[in-house]
Amino acid sequence: MLNFAGNRRWVYAQQVTGYFRSLRHRTSIVLQLILFVTPWLRMNGHPALMVDLPARRVYALGAMFTARDTVLLLLIALFLAFALFFFTSLFGRLWCGFACPQTVFLEEWIRPLEHWIEGSRGLQMKRDAGPWNLDRLWRKGAKWSLYAVAAVGVSMTLGSYFEEARVLWTGGASSEMYWIVAIFAAIWFLDFAWFREQFCNYLCPYARFQSALTDDESLLLVYETGRGEPRGGADAVKAGRCIECDKCVAVCPQGIDIRNGFQLECIACGACIDACDDVLGRLGHEGLIRYDSIAKQQGKKTRLLRPRTVAYGGLLGGLAVAATAVLMARAPFESTVARAPGSLFTVDADGWLRNTYLMRITNNDPATTQMSYTVTIDGLKGAQVTVPDIRLGSAESRTFPLVIRVPPGDDLPRAVPFHVLVNGPDGSLVLNATFQTEAGENDSHD
Ligand code: SF4
Ligand code: SF4
Q1: Measured between alpha carbons, how far is residue 108 from residues 19, 63, 112, 284 in Å?
Q2: Which residues, in sequence order, are CB contacts of 384 under 8 Å at separation 6+?
Q3: Distance (Å, rounded) from C-alpha 341 to C-alpha 86?
Q4: 247 pocket-lining for ligand 2 (C-beta < 6 Å)
């Protein structure tokens, strides 16, 4: 079998039923509903969640964010990263076992299809050890064909977060977009058909820094050595409870034996708990594997509040407050003002001094109705402001001339700083500008 690390044994994970399998299945349904349905939802006339890279915009829950919101988006990204750190320090790798897209797709689609087409674990092993006969060929062909369909579906869905779903799924997107979707579909196919658990073990960055995020009080999978060992069960008096059925190993999607102690490969999916509960439950005993912490195993307390979780919690609180403050202060439009190119200081026939600027206003309000904006200035005594009627539709961006006239006066310096106030329906922006009173001044940008 081709492998990534040179020592891989193909994992023939046996199907398992039980409390945690059922919990994972229900969690997966909710997550998949969110993943597959969200791109088709619209709020305020725009996708409910979409990153429009060419336009450098992000649509999220009815709001529209642009490059001007970089700080807010950075705060949100940091919040999500620290939320994952916080969650990991408390609950270990539950994300990997229950919510990671790789796990969800493998456990909900890929392995069930494999079992449906190629049969049980034993049959799969037997066929794979045999020759490439017609039976093996058609089963592999059918399985890989369905994997290809799943890979294209997943890739198109992920692409729908970067291009309108209706456009992408009806062939209206750019050829570049379809090339990107095709490349990701090929990667997903490779993952489904071959790479699988190697992604967690060798490539996933989250898995790599797990050990730095967890401690002895974090939740992980533990095998009760005290009750389980020595294995065998043949000697009813001396032996431990583990009957060496190896079912916990057979169901493990990572191909590990949890009885050897905590291993970095374990994704905390709980399949081994279900397996052991089932086997020993039939014999009237409690299972030997459970979610627990190393500290508890050593007879110590497991605290929710400890330096690591408090630090992450504090950071999360600080980031939430900062993001909320930035969000509250945010105007749903953006504007710049700059001196009109080539325009110099002008003296009108009536002696007034005139400067001309170009104002660019972008309406970031996702509501589809037109928005009106007014412009006033502050800091230029007796000034007259001429600006056209400004109305912009959602996501519309236009440039307007702004003409400012100031009455003549001996006391005016060469350059007078002032403020341009742009007032929209839901907020206002203050821009800095400079009024020039003598020809030959350098253009000033604001
Ligand atoms: S050891 Fe158990 S919890 Fe860990 S990956 Fe294997 S089956 Fe899942
Ligand atoms: S499933 Fe339980 S009894 Fe069977 S080998 Fe694993 S730990 Fe032992």
Answers
A1: 16, 33, 7, 31
A2: 352, 404, 405, 406
A3: 52
A4: yes
Which ligand minimizes its atom distance to the CA of 256? 1
Q: Residue 445 gets which letter from DSSP?
A: B
- Amino acid of residue 26: R
CA-CA distance, 267 to 296, in Å (whole number)?
20
Nearest CA to ligand 2 atom 1: 276
Give the span between the Cα atoms of 196 and 114, in whole angstroms: 13
Mean pLDDT over the full length of the chain: 91
Atom 2 (ligand 1): residue with closest C-alpha?
A: 272
Q: Is the CB of 245 under 6 A from ligand 2?
A: yes
What per-residue confidence (pLDDT) applies to 408? 84
Token pair for 264 = 């970095």
Residue 264's pLDDT is what?
87
Q: Which atom of ligand 1 is nearest to the CA of 221?
A: 3
Q: In what order do the strands lie in the sheet with 427-436?
A: 390-392, 371-378, 415-424, 427-436
What would the mean pLDDT of 5-25 be, rounded to a whole number? 91
List pLDDT tens digits, range 38-93: 999 999 888 999 999 998 889 999 888 888 889 999 999 999 999 999 999 999 99
